[in-house]
Amino acid sequence: MIRPCTSQDFDTIYSIVNDAAMAYKGVIPADRWHDPYMPKAELRAAINGGVEFWGFETEGTLVGVMGVQPVQDVTLIRHAYVLTSHRRHGIGGQLLLFLLARIGTPTLIGTWAASSAAQWFPG
Q: What CATH number should be reported for the domain holding residue 61?
């Protein structure tokens, strides 16, 4: 089930982001990597800056998240992460397709150039 995340999901979003980011340690440039990859203050700043997180829930547990942020006349897809234990099951693709169907503006999706897994899109 895909649903909007709420403030009660903050700690779970934080855990998902940092668990999933471990898969990209060594891919993310060393000068951009820190532990935790996304500190709580940075996550709060993203949310306060307009990132709205949506989550993918399996058996009542949030296992993937993706953020959308309207900026001027476009929408950014930001912070797309799936728990390591749930990767390669199409969760990220389902979140992306769901969000793209809801967005009524041009959309920009950013990822690391070296991340071939994040660049793959089920079309």
A: 3.40.630.30
